Amino acid sequence: MWGERSPSVRSHARIPLLVRALRERDGIAVDAYWISTADVSGVDGFDGIWLVPGSPYRDEAGALEAVRVARERGIPFLGTCGGFQHLLLEYARNVCGLDVAHAENTPGARDFLLTPLACTLAGHESRVRPESGTMMERIVGASSTVEVYNCSYGLNEDYKQTLAGHGLVFSGHADDGTARAVELPGHPFFLAVMFQPELAGDGRRPPPGDLRLRRRGRPPRPHRKNRVTVSPRHPARRSAMRRAAGPRVYAASGGPRRSPAAG
């Protein structure tokens, strides 16, 4: 997980419960680490990347680098809320060649890809309609879904056609047609949503997108069957390996620490 962990962010409190549910209910043991956006060393050694909510991130460039590496090297990637926004920003800059900014991160910029919503969605639920034939549709398994939001910024729709013309597929929309999900065809798993599926339910059952990300992680080593791992090259993994045995779920920028949800 990439992002700055904060007890004030609801999804951050929910994520340890989902990791435990993946292990106990779905048989997927995840070596999950929480990494600051200021630390992108060894990002290509991870089996999967989740750019979590909680923007503005400490380091915009670091968040974008995590997206770029996942996109270019075929690493499964999930972005939720702020992760959705920064996937779009990385793609616009590095694939479309656009000189655009995020209004929250760089309010003095000339052109904005991400702009304040006319009506904030923070704390609201809203309908999302997946597009036919997309990964988003396969994950949702229905013609629509009602999801939880906690964001105040979204895509400047003036840029949607340019992004789509360079290969992105807008695979989910609100009732008014504005973008809510995006994916990249041909990539093993490259999906981002504006909402926060991790807030659905009571945290005892992983949402479909999170479950599929875990299952689509790059194939683990034979002796680590059914585990999604992180490369020992990353400092967070090396630090964790030096600590005493016990449930080590997340490592924040200050080093590994025991997750309350892990016991």
Architecture overview:
- The structure is a single chain.
- A hairpin with a 5-residue loop joins strand 9 and strand 10.
- Strands 2-3-11-10-9-6-7 form a seven-stranded mixed sheet, sandwiched between helices.
- The chain has seven helices and 14 strands.
- It is α/β, with parallel strands linked by helices and about 260 residues long.
- The C terminus is likely disordered.
- The longest helix has 17 residues.
Brief write-up:
Helices cover 27% and strands 19% of the residues.
Features:
263 residues; alpha/beta; seven-stranded mixed β-sheet
Question: How would the blueprint of this fold be written?
Answer:
Layout: H1 10-26, E1 29-30, E2 49-51, H2 60-73, E3 77-80, H3 82-94, E4 101-102, E5 112-116, E6 125-130, H4 135-140, E7 145-148, E8 153-155, H5 160-165, E9 169-173, E10 179-183, E11 190-193, H6 208-215, E12 227-228, H7 235-241, E13 250-252, E14 255-257
Parallel strand pairs: 1-12, 2-3, 3-11, 4-5
Antiparallel strand pairs: 5-8, 6-7, 6-9, 9-10, 10-11, 13-14
Helix pairs in contact: 2-3
**Count of helix runs:** 7
Biggest beta sheet summary: 7 strands, mixed
Output the strand order for the largest sheet: 2-3-11-10-9-6-7
**Total strand segments:** 14
Helix/strand structural class: alpha/beta
* Cα-to-Cα separation, first versus last residue: 19 Å
Could you spell the SSE succession in H and E letters?
HEEHEHEEEHEEHEEEHEHEE
Tell me the β content.
15-25%
Instruction: Give unreliable regions as ranges.
Output: 219-235, 237-263
Mean pLDDT: 81
Helix content estimate: 25-40%
- Give the overall silhouette: globular
Radius of gyration: 17 Å
